[in-house]
Write a structure and sequence with these properties.
It is a single chain. The protein has five helices and four strands. It has 164 residues and is α+β, with helices and mostly antiparallel strands. Helix 3 packs across helix 4. The chain is globular and about 50 Å long.
Length: 164
């Protein structure tokens, strides 16, 4: 997870490098260990498909530079009205150990036709928790930013003398 300060630096980096005619406005730049996702609004008179074709070369050029600098893949998206469409974003495998009662939850979702597999069921659960706890997750992220800030201000123990 990146800090709020790192997130702002990343947003500024993309805002600086994106040509002015790519997005009407830059909505968000989010990142995790594997991927950076850049989302902006599409001009009102343009469809998502038209936008994607018109801006492809510009986005590829910026993505190449970002991928070399940040060592993460770059995904692009647009917001048109209330709908957000992402282009070529990653689906990253995640390993986890689940107890039988937890596996039974996933198996029930599969048996009920909610998901095709345990992996799909787990992704469904994560989306459900995320959409129903947005405020709590935002508070938790702010708390983590504060932890990072306090750690960065801590004492420098690397150069401390050995108290032998």
């Amino acid at each position: 997870m990146i800090t709020a300060e790192q997130s702002e630096q990343l947003r500024a980096w993309f805002a600086e490098r994106l040509p002015v005619d790519v997005y009407k406005t830059l909505v968000s730049v989010t990142a995790d260990r594997e991927e950076i996702t850049v989302v902006g609004t599409v001009p009102a008179a343009e469809s998502v498909k038209e936008f994607r074709e018109r801006t492809r070369e510009q986005r590829i050029e910026v993505a190449r530079e970002a991928e070399e600098l940040y060592r993460r893949k770059v995904a692009w998206g647009v917001r048109s009205g209330e709908e957000t469409t992402l282009f070529t974003h990653l689906a990253v495998p995640v390993m986890t150990r689940l107890r039988q009662s937890e596996r039974q939850v996933l198996d029930t979702l599969v048996a009920g036709g909610v998901a095709r597999s345990r992996a799909d069921a787990l992704a469904w659960c994560v989306r459900l928790v995320g959409s129903n706890t947005d405020a709590w997750l935002a508070d938790l992220r702010r708390s983590l930013d504060e932890v990072h800030r306090v750690r960065a201000q801590g004492p420098d123990v690397s150069g401390a003398a050995d108290p032998a």
